Amino acid sequence: MSKVVRLGIAKMGCLGSVPLLEFLFDERAERTDLDVRVVGSGAKLGPEQCVEVTKTLLNLKPDFIIVAGPAQQTAGPKEARKLLADSGIPTLIISDGPMVRIKGELEKAGFGYIIVEADPMIGARREFLDPVEMAIFNSDVIKLLACTGVFNVIVDAVDRIIESLKRGEKPSLPHIVVDRNLALKAAEYSNPYARAKALAAFDLAKQVTSLHVEACFKLTDWKEYTLLVAAGHEGVRLASKLSEEAREIEKASDSVLRRPHHRDGVRSRKRALIEKPKKD
């Protein structure tokens, strides 16, 4: 019988990749080869929160750790990584585009990483962002990450690590920048119009980050930055709609790709709705 892998997930702050992360690897709660624990810092990611989360997670003695959240170049995540490096536990960092600036540092320290270019920063200005708007933004981002293939990239990478650990091997940690080409390849759309819509959604979401960086960190006139964050959220709404339309095109030809996990962690695939999935 193969080893049951204990996966620990540290959520530090929020990105579109974060809220449903643990459920991507066991979508029907039936895997017998995987046990997952999650510890979160809430919205904040200062040193105090990130260190506490990391220590709590390490006490659970995971075989493998995922750290997911934005602003990996700031003090909180840096302090957390010091503890993780000392632990010797294989660790994968999942974050957004700005993490590309420290990817060399992460590689040197022995961390794996997945950088998602289309996971945009939220427009966090008080004149615009409230709990409802925050929830809508993140639901839109989750949908576009699912429909453009980003979640497929993450699941495939994590499943390979889990399989290595089950065999008693030291896993090879990935160093991945999820750009539009990699995401669309993983989405495996069969219709070129579906691919075009997914590509447009990915690139539109990627551009929103630059709008929000300007609005949140560069502009001081509240009327200007309020308009800009509103524009960014409209961009994400349209990106989400485009990504959903891509999937609807695949539905129309009965060719939606589905890749469920089996109890032993092996994934299968199917295209037709009325069809049994077959193991890869």
Structure commentary:
Helices cover 47% and strands 14% of the residues. The chain contains eight helices and eight strands; from the N terminus they run ββαβαβαβααβαααββ. Strands 2-1-3-4-5-6 form a six-stranded parallel beta sheet, with helices on both faces. α6 crosses α7 and α7 packs antiparallel against α8. The longest helix has 31 residues.
Write the layout of secondary structure elements.
Blueprint: E1 5-11, E2 34-40, H1 47-59, E3 64-68, H2 75-87, E4 91-96, H3 103-108, E5 112-116, H4 131-147, H5 150-166, E6 175-178, H6 180-187, H7 192-217, H8 222-252, E7 268-269, E8 278-279
Parallel strand pairs: 1-2, 1-3, 3-4, 4-5, 5-6
Antiparallel strand pairs: 7-8
Helix pairs in contact: 1-2, 4-7, 4-8, 5-6, 6-7, 7-8
TL;DR of this structure?
47% of the residues lie in helices and 14% in strands.
CATH superfamily of the largest domain: F420-dependent methylenetetrahydromethanopterin dehydrogenase (MTD)
CATH-assigned fold name of the largest domain: Rossmann fold
Question: Which class of the largest domain in CATH terms?
Answer: Alpha Beta
Mean pLDDT: 97
Order of helices and strands: EEHEHEHEHHEHHHEE
Q: So what's the overall shape?
A: globular
| Helical segment count | 8
Q: Can you give the helix content as a percent range? A: 40-55%
Tell me the span between the first and last alpha carbons. 20 Å
Task: Outline the biggest β-sheet.
Answer: 6 strands, parallel
Radius of gyration: 19 Å
Strand order of the largest sheet: 2-1-3-4-5-6
Kindly estimate the percentage of residues that lie in beta strands according to DSSP.
5-15%
Poorly predicted ranges (pLDDT <50, ≥5 residues)? none
Going by CATH, the architecture of the largest domain would be: 3-Layer(aba) Sandwich
